[in-house]
Amino acid sequence: MSRETATRSPAGRGLMRDLRRLSIYTVKRLLALFVTVLVGVYLTIVIANMGGQVDELRMVQIRSEAAESVRANPDFQGMSSEERNQLIQRRVALEVERLRLDEPFILRSVDYLQQAISLNLGRAEQMHSDRGSRQVYDIIVERLPATLLLFGTANLLVFFVSVFSALSLSRRYGSLLDRCVIALAPSSAAPGWFYGIFLILLFAFVMPVLPASGMVAAPPPEGIWAYAASVLRHMLLPLTAMFVSQLFVSIYSWRTFFLIHSSEDYVEMARAKGLPSNLIERRYILRPTLAPIITSFLLMLVGLWSGAIILEQVFNWPGLGSLLFQAIGHRDTPVIIGSVVIFAYLLAMTVFLLDILYALLDPRIRIEGGER
Amino acid sequence: MTGWLDGLRELRRYPSAILGMAIIALLVGLSIYTVVAIPYSQALELWRGGEHWRMTPANAGPVWADRLLGGRQPMTISVSSAGADIEERAFEGGRRLRIPLTFEYEHEGFPSEINLFLRAEGHEQTPFARLVWETPDGREISLGGHRIGRRERISISQNRALERRLGGMVPHVGLLAEPDTQQAPRVQPGRYTLTLDAVVFDEKADLETNLVLYGRVHGIAGTDHQRRDLQVALMWGTPVALAFGLLAAVGTTVTTLIIAALGVWYRGWIDATIQRLTEVNMILPLLPVLVMVGTLYSTSIWLMLGVVVLLGIFSAGIKMYRAMLLPIREAPYIEAAQAYGASNLRIVMRYMIPRILPVLIPTFVTLIPTFVFLEASLAVLGLGDPVLPTWGKVLNDAQAQSALYNGYYYWVLEPAALLMLTGLGFATLGFALDRVFNPRLRSL
């Protein structure tokens, strides 16, 4: 009995110690990330308002719009110019108050920051969602699934296909297939939208078998299955474009990575012991390299949020990227800031997840409490 | 230094490296030729469009593509009054001129447009001309009468009345078609004449005319919707793309490297600040910020370059360089340098950075096409430089004019091929360099 407790207690203490260090580490990282998001979002607010210069542009626009609407309205034809000017002034003042342009920019920017961080994204100035809502939150949430669907699928596909084919290629190092893949790696110098143009040319115009752009057929087909089939058909080209542009370089880098790690001494040792090759792969190659693999998986997710604008533009995909582009075109600052806030939050969440996973996977962090 | 030379010598063993270098040399040669042949100001002037291009067809494909596919589409035919034999008869208070503009038409396809340019300088009273079109089989079609201003352009293709008389065929088809065919119109080959019967109320003043039958193919690159020769943009796109890619790559890698080295050397709060800045920067998405700057401030390519470099300074690369530099910091030769009294800056610049430069070269080379494509991406989003012709802007024009839908494939394929060539050139060289200079790969 006593021997049992004696052996268990150091392990128990070890677990407690691990947990304590892990939680300290987590809190530290959370705080750091929060500050990071704060600074990033504030910078965005300043850039999106051109440090307050957008206000002047907007004032001019408001004035001309008010003047135009008063002049165009036949009810006000009978007014004297004095009265009409007053009316225009009143309307401008109302609009200025609505957009809070009478307050200094610094004050508003802090206010914007506070609202943005608490995800109270406010109302769009010009744009609205397809359902007609003016809430920035609704507009963004409406677009989010489209982006997630397309880019999530593409990235998952690229990731798993490349990791597994790299693993099998590293076993056949120097074979014809291996050399072919290496030779194809430079094809990734071009981004996805670039291949997208070619794919559209080939499969939508030369051989019209697939739709060139959009997400579903118009009008949307009835029934879930028909709808899904239509979305799938529209997804095929952008998916292929991303797949082609990322696959080979991804395989190349994973293959090199696995090659380096499968020439480690402990792997040679395991081979010499005569362990079966799938066991070697699982326990001696994949387990020690899990941390970098997961890192790159999550970093790929990070890239997912930001690289989408052009591909979505080229394929006219109704996602976050094209929303951001439209918002910038309309100078609709709440929407711009809202999208970037969402971007920043998603990125921060990804980075945080990365840190936690790292801590779980890498014993050095668990023991030293993140003093890297 | 010998390590470098050995590395370069080793590079010759890789055919892909040779191919990459050949492509890069080709592009650099093309850029130098372009900058010499079409000076910067002239290129901007040409790309602004307008009067320069009144003699070129709109949306014409490249000649070689048509000939390779066995087509015999027409090139632009221009018939000037300078070589024509003009009959002149004087009368009281003026002259009567009969200017025949004759040309042979042997092509398979119809021209894309017909315009008649007239110049009548120094006339006190506007001259008047009657136009008659004569076909090879002797039919005469009246094209109506026109008063001639100082500089006149008669768009024969836009003549609706003529179109009705030709049985609904647009004039540039109807005037050259075989008569009375029920099927699709076919070209009647032979000798055509457009006769100007002009009355001039002046003894001496000149009347110059120029009949232009715009072709369906033009030059080696074709033209766009504004009649501009794409060759200008494709050629000028090369130095612009190379300069942008190179400057952005140099700007980001060098500054990033120096900052990472400084952080590693000084440690403490400097390192911490650099690390935090990097994290903030990682949260700011590059492309949306660029799009924002482009729409709100200016789309000048140099401003974009500045923003790219600025955002690239604290990029994720810092973390990578930091990891590479940390062991170097503890190396004995650094200690030795410190012992004989080398300054901090000297240690960073002369002892630490040169050590990891070889590893950096491949990254640097593969970064160049990334930035070339970034510039093209911005242009495709409509944020290209407002005046400079670039490949991305050609793509953007093509996209905006639905080039693929209208079947102007050359318009998309040409800039795309050049972009692809640049990407491939640098990428193949970069991958080969990686195999030579990356110590981890060399040991395999």
TrEMBL record, chain A:
Pfam families: BPD_transp_1. SUPFAM superfamilies: MetI-like. Keywords: Cell membrane, Membrane, Transmembrane, Transmembrane helix, Transport. The chain crosses the membrane at residues 30-50, 148-169, 181-204, 224-249, 290-315, 335-361. Residues 144-358 form the ABC transmembrane type-1 domain. It comes from the Bacteria. InterPro entries: MetI-like, MetI-like_sf. It is a multi-pass membrane protein. It is found in: Cell membrane. Gene3D superfamilies: MetI-like (1.10.3720.10). CDD domains: TM_PBP2 (cd06261). Belongs to the binding-protein-dependent transport system permease family. PANTHER family: BINDING-PROTEIN-DEPENDENT TRANSPORT SYSTEMS INNER MEMBRANE COMPONENT (PTHR30465:SF45), INNER MEMBRANE ABC TRANSPORTER (PTHR30465). This is ABC transporter permease.
From TrEMBL, chain B:
It is found in: Cell membrane. Its main location: membrane. Residues 242-430 form the ABC transmembrane type-1 domain. PROSITE patterns: ABC_TM1. Keywords: Membrane, Transmembrane, Transmembrane helix, Transport. Gene3D superfamilies: MetI-like. The keyword Transmembrane applies. It is a multi-pass membrane protein. The keyword Transmembrane applies. The chain crosses the membrane at residues 14-38, 233-266, 286-314, 356-381, 408-433. Belongs to the binding-protein-dependent transport system permease family. This is Peptide ABC transporter permease. It comes from Litchfieldella qijiaojingensis.
